[in-house]
Amino acid sequence: MEFFEVIHTQRSIRRFKPDPIPDGEIWALIDAAIKAPSGSNQQPWIWMVVRDAAKRHAIAEATRRYMESAGRFEEMERAAETVQDPSRKRSVRGAVEFFRDVAAAPVLIIPCLVSVTSPVTDPRTLLAGSSIYGAVQNLMLAARAMGIGTVLTTFNQFIEDSLRIELGIPADVVPTCIVPVGYPDGQRFGPTTRKPAEAVTYWDGWGSANSRG
Amino acid sequence: MEFFEVIHTQRSIRRFKPDPIPDGEIWALIDAAIKAPSGSNQQPWIWMVVRDAAKRHAIAEATRRYMESAGRFEEMERAAETVQDPSRKRSVRGAVEFFRDVAAAPVLIIPCLVSVTSPVTDPRTLLAGSSIYGAVQNLMLAARAMGIGTVLTTFNQFIEDSLRIELGIPADVVPTCIVPVGYPDGQRFGPTTRKPAEAVTYWDGWGSANSRG
């Protein structure tokens, strides 16, 4: 696919067919991910690919338990009621359905930050993110180019202990997000809507807008 | 350009021609950046484009002052002496040259995280990075597709006070990185070298490798 077509049609996919993703396609996603830059080219990452049904269901169960105990499902359903924008409403409804069973995705990819020697960057800080989330974006763009759906989620923050136990993730390794991966079930790729670039770009100083010639 | 060709030939460019980048190309970079996903699609970003020569020189001067006072130039030069890998040696030498005058790039783009209402995420944390560094990667990939060089840097952390003063960045807004932008001067795009995917991928549990069939 043409590069800008991929960029302009990437979209969060949250409904997946149960069909497995062939190994070769998963390797192609990770090959794309690891071409991204990282601080001092240290590539401080491990890509944890979870396909095993029992492990996926354990992760889904931990997620549902958290969402229920924290009242998040009710909260999201209320948000879906009150929100006006139809596309945002669909997105919130889709998120509720998604969180009820994250194991509906045949693959969960969990990019992890591992300790590197120099420079010593605390992996829980914003700047550490510069060495992983670009690679995650490469992975998701590659998926879109191959007709595979993904969605960037950070519910790892709510189930981190369960993830560590279920997958044996060491204490000094930090899961950075969870990317469910699968063939889209009914959802189409973009285009998506965004605030226009002119509204979010300043030139040479805070607040200095510039019209698009 | 074909999508995977862009992905597989992105490379850090640190030597730039002084030629200006036309406005239309800068808008195209930001149009690509803002198609990336962000938490709840909140697009918590401002793209600060710095072209003004006086402002770029002030940023370069603050950077040089920090690098000198912290002994970083000597440190990097020692590293360049001791490092064995020729490509890594060139990269460290290139970084020294680059940091001596970051204003050699005709444009500096500084993506900033702005406060969003919900969910309340501390912008200094790893997870906040998931809503900006993917967009930064889109920007850098788009640049490569257009023959424009970029490099992801985080020296903003060393000169944050100067950036705030020089560009009027409010206290609750967080600069996340600095991306110098310009036409490459002598440097070519990739391919780049990385640890193989097989060495950085685990399947269904920590330490479980999988050969590539």
Query: Do you know the CATH topology of chain A?
Result: NADH Oxidase
What gap, in angstroms, lies between the N and C termini of chain A? 30 Å
Task: Specify which chain pair forms the largest interface.
Answer: A-B, 82 and 82 residues
What percentage of amino acids of chain A are in beta strands? 5-15%
Any low-confidence stretches of chain A, pLDDT <50, length ≥5?
Answer: none
Number of beta-strand segments of chain A: 6
- Percent of residues in helices of chain A: 25-40%
Biggest β-sheet of chain A: count, sense, barrel?
5 strands, antiparallel
| Overall SS class of chain A | alpha+beta
- The protein's oligomeric status is homodimer
Shape of chain A: globular
Total helix count of chain A? 7
Cα Rg of chain A: 18 Å
Q: Tell me, rounded to a whole number, the average pLDDT of chain A.
A: 94
- Per CATH, the class of chain A reads Alpha Beta
CATH homologous group name of chain A: NADH Oxidase
- SSE topology string of chain A: HHEHHHEHEHEEE
CATH architect. name of chain A: 3-Layer(aba) Sandwich
Count of discrete structural domains of chain A: 1
